Amino acid sequence: MEKKRFSRFLSGGYLALVLVFVYLPIIYMVIFSFNDSKSMLNFTGFSLRWYESISKDRFMLESISNTFIVAIISTAVSTVLGTVTAIGLSKSRRLIREVVLEINNLPIMNPDIVTAIGLMLLFTSIKITTGMPTLILAHVSFCTPFVILSIMPKLRQLDDNVAEAAMDLGATPFQALVKIILPQIYPAILSGALIAFSMSLDDFVVSYFTKGEGLNTISTYVYTMKRYNYTVNALSTIIVVVVAVVLILVNLIPRLMEKKANKEEE
Question: Can you tell me whether residue 46 is helix, strand or coil?
Answer without folding.
Answer: strand
